[in-house]
Specification:
By secondary structure, the chain is of the alpha/beta class. It has 2 domains: 93 residues, Vaccinia Virus protein VP39 (Rossmann fold, 3-Layer(aba) Sandwich); 104 residues, Vaccinia Virus protein VP39 (Rossmann fold). The chain is 34% helix and 18% strand. The chain is built from 9 helices and 7 strands; from the N terminus they run αααβαβαβαβαβαβαβ. The chain has a 7-stranded mixed β-sheet, with helices on both faces. β1, α4 and β2 form a beta-alpha-beta unit. The longest helix has 13 residues. It is globular, with a radius of gyration of 17 Å. The N and C termini lie far apart (57 Å). Bound molecules: S-adenosylmethionine (SAM). The site of S-adenosylmethionine (SAM) has 21 residues, from β2, α6 and α9.
C-alpha cells in the first residue's frame, strides 16, 4: 500500500521567502528587493538544511540568500525558515547556480559564501555538474568582495583533492589555514553549525574536509 500525501501549498509567509530570478533582473539591486540594507551572504546548494537559516538568525544585520535547484528541497527549506521564525533578511532562489549567479550578483558584491557538501558527481559524464571545479570557483571568486570568506566542506577525499587542484589555479582565492589545504575540524568550533549531510557523514565516522578561503584584497588578480 502506498501512503498518499496531499500536496501542501506554501503559506503566504513561505511564499514571501522566494525571490524569483525575474524579480531580481527587474530590480537589479538586492537591497531594494529585500527592502533592507546589509552585507550580502550566499549559500549554494542548501538542500533542506538549516545552516543558512541559523546564520541569518544569528547575524540579522546581514542579508542572506540560499540557492537550491531541487524544488522539493527548496520548499522544505522555505517552510523551515518560517517555522523557525527567521527574520526578513533571508530569501531563497530556486535556480541552478551555474545559470543564476553570474547575472544576479554583481562582481565584488558578496560579503561571503558557503558551498557545503556539494554533490561530488563522481562519474566523468557528470563532471560538468560539479560545483568544485575551476570555472565555477573562479566565478564565485569574482563575485566575492576583496577579503571576503568562502567556506567549503566535503566528506569526499577525492572531491577534496580535485577542489584543491582547482583552487591552486585561482590566484584570487587564498587559504586561511596556511600550509594546510583543509582542516579536519571546524576552525571556530563554538560558532560551527553542522549541516544535515555533515551530521550524516560524522555519524558514519567519515572525516570532513573544511576549506577556509578568502578572496585576495587585490581586485586586479583574477
Ligand atoms: C549533498 S546536498 C547538501 C545539502 C546541504 N548543503 C547539506 O550540507 O546538508 C547538495 C545540494 O546541492 C544542490 N545542488 C547541486 N548542484 C546545484 C546547482 N548547480 N545549483 C543549485 N543547487 C545545486 C542539490 O540539489 C542538493 O540539494
Amino acid at each position: 500500500m502506498t501512503r498518499l500525501r496531499r500536496h501542501q501549498r506554501l503559506s503566504e509567509g513561505e511564499q514571501s521567502r522566494e525571490f524569483k530570478v525575474q524579480q531580481l533582473l527587474d530590480h537589479g539591486d538586492w537591497s531594494q528587493l529585500f527592502g533592507l540594507s546589509g552585507d550580502l551572504w550566499l549559500e549554494i546548494g542548501t538542500g533542506k538544511d538549516t545552516h543558512i537559516i541559523d546564520r541569518a538568525s544569528r547575524f540579522d544585520g546581514d542579508l542572506h540568500v540560499g540557492i537550491e535547484q531541487c524544488r522539493k528541497k527548496f520548499e522544505m527549506t522555505l517552510r523551515k525558515a518560517e517555522t523557525l521564525h527567521c527574520g526578513p533578511n533571508l530569501k531563497f532562489l530556486h535556480a541552478d547556480a551555474f545559470d543564476a549567479i553570474d547575472p544576479l550578483f554583481a562582481d565584488n558584491s558578496l560579503a561571503g559564501a558557503f558551498i557545503l557538501f556539494p554533490d561530488p558527481w563522481p562519474k566523468t559524464r557528470h563532471a560538468r555538474r560539479r560545483l568544485l571545479q575551476s570555472s565555477f570557483l573562479t566565478l564565485i571568486a569574482r563575485k566575492l568582495r576583496p577579503g571576503a570568506p568562502l567556506e567549503i566542506r566535503t566528506d569526499d577525499p577525492s572531491y577534496a583533492h580535485q577542489a584543491l587542484a582547482s583552487l591552486e589555479e585561482i590566484e584570487s582565492l587564498l587559504s586561511r589555514t596556511g600550509e594546510e589545504p583543509w582542516l579536519y575540524q571546524p576552525l571556530d568550533l563554538g560558532n560551527h553549525v553542522e549541516t544535515l549531510f555533515e551530521k550524516r557523514f560524522l555519524s558514519k565516522g567519515q572525516p570532513i574536509h573544511h576549506f577556509y578561503l578568502q578572496k585576495t584584497e587585490d581586485v586586479a588578480v583574477s
